[in-house]
Give the backbone structure.
Amino acid sequence: MNKNVSKVFIAADHRGVGLKLYLIEMLAAAGYNVVNLGVDDPNTSADYPDVAATLADAMENDEKSRGIIICGTGAGIMIAANRYRHIRASRCERPDQARDDRFHDDTNVLALAADDIDIEMAFLCVQAFLESPFDAVERRIRRVEKIS
């Protein structure tokens, strides 16, 4: 568990509910402070831009928090989340992607594709995302500042 992460906010549209509930269970067991922002019913349609907005609002004043967002493809919810200046979201399918995105780009939100990733691989991506540091050298800080 990364003690530098204050909270893990997690949200999903209706297509990502099952994966979200699994990840909540696994993260809580690992000792993370997990905040479930919904949606919790796979039978009630939810628009991924609204889910991304809920997560962005929750993370706005907590720089030590991280977020996980899930929709069917992972792409729509990632695009919606990246509309907010304080969010740097990336869609990952492998742990090395999550690690590299944290290291190089200081991503603070992980987007997952519920339709395309199995739950074990998703958890490995989440672990890499939460445990990986940002390489805060001058050139990387400069680049992140240009997008934030």
Remarks:
- The CA atoms of residues 12 and 20 lie 7 Å apart.
